[in-house]
Amino acid sequence: MPSKEVWTFRVDMAAPMTLLSLGFLARFATRECHARSILGLTTIVSLMTQQIPPGGTKGTRMPRGRLLRVSTAMMAWIYRRTGGGMGGHTMLLLTTVGAHSGEKRTANIRRFEDGPGRWLVVASAGGQAKHPSWLYNATSHPDQVWAEIDRDKVRGTPQILAGDERAEAWDRIVAEAPQFGTYPDKTDREIPVVRLTRAS
To answer: What is the pTM of this model?
Structure first.
């Protein structure tokens, strides 16, 4: 199954531009491109790709549907009431916008410090075959991601790590929380590691 690539377009236009012209630019753009003075128009187009690894074919079974929604809402309530004290100040609440529903969704996730204003989160889903919904939401709407860390709420920019950068981050995560090292034995998908950076 091929990797899913999510493209996000951010466009500032000094004059109207046809969808045909925008499509022409997108076809020949690389990951980051800036096009100016095309057909007499001043246009800046930014492209950001987020590479999501393929889902798996096996994994653990976890609660779904109403039970999952109720338990997630309860954990979020406790987190906010205790100022992040639940879990010994190692968790965060991640709020994203549904890739299909357009509604805000909140997940309670383990966080790992990654320097000032940066945190790592793992799309482990407890070792399930499928990636968690928040991963697709965050890559579909990367400008609508919020993290509640203890009593602080910030907007974050998500980045899926790859290659050596992911490997180094994964080693640090497993050293700090060894239970994460068991998830690759439960599923055959690559478990994404996402860096959240505080948006300026």
So the answer is: 0.74
- 2.40.128.110, 2.40.170.20, 2.30.110.10, 3.30.70.100: CATH of 65-198: 2.30.110.10
Instruction: Find all residues with CB under 8 Å of 127, minimum gap 6, and list them.
Output: 59, 60, 182, 183, 185, 186, 187
Query: Residue 135 corresponds to which tokens in the numbers above?
Result: 């991963």
Phi/psi for 168 (5° steps) reads -65, -40
Q: Which residues contact 9 (CB under 8 A, 6 or more apart)?
A: 22, 26, 45, 46, 47
Q: Work out the pLDDT band at 3, boundaries 50, 70, 90.
A: low
The domain locations on the chain are: 4-52, 65-198
Rg (CA), the chain: 19
